[in-house]
From TrEMBL:
Organism of this sequence: Macrostomum lignano
InterPro entries xref list: Peripla_BP_I
Protein name: ANF_receptor domain-containing protein
């Protein structure tokens, strides 16, 4: 679990698209819930498209059937890059079900645009001796240079210049 911060909330979408571009994602799934403005979701799709990344958008509700069907469809379509733009409760439900369906394995890359979820809540859902690729992008007054964890090796894999990056 890595955290990237920006003091400008409007650059969240650009940051998420930049992450996927850096990992050379050909396609991404965008999971959003009914609490997100459709214009925001459209803007994210435009950011991804501008970077040459195709996207499939899924509106998520908190029913297990809806989440399970969405994750199953992503597995069948071999979509390995997922952007989550949901309220905190839905984010936790998605991470919990993703762990159960095997979509938190290292060959999946998750980017969560933070809407208030506690990082400790996500970490509590992750198995102790397994790794997962989850990047949380959130608004923060502290940048990566002064964050307690600094620029982790996992974050450097995605952002080699993260100490000077504006994301």
């Amino acid at each position: 679990l890595s955290l990237a911060s920006t003091s400008n909330a409007t650059s969240f979408l650009e940051a998420a698209a930049a992450v996927l571009q850096r990992v050379a994602a050909p396609v991404a799934a965008v999971l959003h819930d009914e609490f997100q403005d459709h214009k925001l979701v459209e803007e994210l799709q435009l950011e991804l498209s501008a970077k040459g990344i195709a996207s499939s958008t899924f509106q998520i509700n908190n029913s297990v059937g809806n989440l399970n069907l969405t994750l199953t469809n992503m597995i069948k379509a071999k979509i390995r890059n997922i952007v989550v733009l949901c309220d905190p409760g839905t984010v936790l439900n998605i991470v919990n079900l993703a762990q159960k369906t095997g979509t938190l394995q290292p060959n999946y890359f998750w980017t969560v645009i933070d809407t208030g979820v506690r990082l400790a809540s996500i970490e509590d859902l992750l198995p102790a001796n397994e790794s997962a690729n989850i990047l949380v992008i959130r608004e923060s007054a502290i940048d990566l240079k002064t964050a307690s964890a600094g620029c982790t090796s996992q974050l450097k894999t995605v952002f080699p210049d993260c100490q000077t990056s504006r994301y």
